[in-house]
Amino acid sequence: MAARQKREERPLPPPLPPAERTVGQLVGEAIRAYGAHFWQGLVLGIPVVVANALAWRQSADDRGLVLLPVTALLISVSYVLAVGRVNGVSALSRQGALAYVVAVLVFLPVPLLAAIFILPGLVWLSLFGLAVPAVLVERLGVRAALARGLALARVDFVHVLGGLATLALVVIISQFSLYFVLREYADNTRMIAAALAALVVSPVVFLGSALLYVDQTARLVSREERREE
């Protein structure tokens, strides 16, 4: 019994640095960052709730294509704010506005690509999504940021793609689980339950995506240092 208690009290090993961080630790760090500033992180889910509400309202009219630019406009807000929060940079600036424009351009074709099959959408985001933090954090122009984003993605493309896929999977499963709990055990309609689930869970995706920029930047620096040795 004493040996078992000693094992349970043993501290967890420290997390790996960003240059060596695994996909699992990426998700864990995103959740930790969310929990450390829960109410601020919760704001990131509001644009997702609005986008979902518009999609539910328009589906009956069969005007889904009209929602693509609106969805890109809304989702981009959450991503830019998450990038600024993770990297300690203000998104309410001229660079933040430019980063928002780049984010809209990046997110615009994603629903179409995901409608074909979800993998093309994830590949697109893996290749071009890192251009957004390149604009906000490194204060680059659009063309330079796109080139920088591609360079960062190529450093460890498997980590970027695997990270986005894992984040999406974790959030989808968590959101559906929370949705069914709220629907069964609370006096909510299905739409309200789905909105609450999206509000609470979706910020993990944006925070994790922002952390991918930190990981890839550290990996690039580490690779360049090894070349110089």
Can you describe this structure in just a few lines?
With about 230 residues, this protein is mainly alpha-helical. It has 13 helices and no strands. The protein has one domain (about 20-225).
Can you describe this structure?
By secondary structure, this protein is mostly helical. It has one domain. It contains 13 helices and no strands. The protein is globular.
Keywords:
229 residues; globular
Span of the ends, CA to CA: 51 Å
Q: How would you sum up the major sheet?
A: none
User: How many beta-strand runs?
Assistant: 0
Net shape: globular
Give the helix level as a range of percent: over 70%
Q: What string gives the helices and strands in order?
A: HHHHHHHHHHHHH
Q: What ranges have pLDDT less than 50 throughout 5 or more consecutive residues?
A: none
The rounded Rg comes to 19 Å
Query: What is the residue-mean pLDDT, rounded to a whole number?
Result: 83
Beta-strand percent range: under 5%
Domains (count): 1
Oligomeric status: single chain
Count of separate DSSP helical elements:
13
